[in-house]
């Protein structure tokens, strides 16, 4: 994967706003993770990081794109890859599905698979 220094990051709350405006959410978690717990939003693409370099062209270049994973690390790598391949409107969602669940945003599946983890700063209600 590529350098992530050019990637802007947004929090899950801002991600919700972008999705309402038509942004695409790209989840790069692996299939087993998504089978346990998935984002429940319109315009969702699931492209596991292990398949990302072969499938990134499925992501539209003409829309805002929010990259997401479990905690934000893998999606940041994928977002950097997209920026280095000509995508201009790409951001990374900080804190991933862990914070998404903590904020009470819509998911499908077992939230216990992420709620048992230490969310770091995101375990506090003052986080975005």
Automatic annotation (TrEMBL):
Residues 19-109 form the Rhodanese domain. It comes from the Bacteria. Pfam families: Rhodanese. PANTHER family: FAD-DEPENDENT OXIDOREDUCTASE (PTHR43031), PYRIDINE NUCLEOTIDE-DISULPHIDE OXIDOREDUCTASE (PTHR43031:SF1). This is Rhodanese domain-containing protein. It comes from Flavobacterium saliperosum S13.
């Amino acid at each position: 994967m590529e350098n992530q220094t050019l990637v802007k990051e947004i929090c899950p709350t801002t991600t919700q706003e972008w999705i309402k405006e038509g942004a695409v959410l790209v989840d790069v978690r692996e299939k087993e993770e998504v089978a346990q717990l998935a984002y429940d939003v319109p315009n969702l693409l699931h492209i596991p990081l292990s398949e990302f370099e072969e499938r990134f062209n499925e992501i539209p270049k003409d829309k805002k794109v929010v990259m997401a994973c479990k905690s934000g690390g893998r999606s940041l790598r994928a977002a950097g890859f997209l920026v280095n391949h000509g995508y201009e409107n790409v951001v990374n969602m900080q804190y991933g599905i862990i914070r998404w669940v903590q904020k009470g945003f819509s998911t499908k599946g077992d939230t216990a698979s992420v709620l048992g983890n230490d969310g770091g700063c995101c375990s506090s209600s003052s986080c975005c």
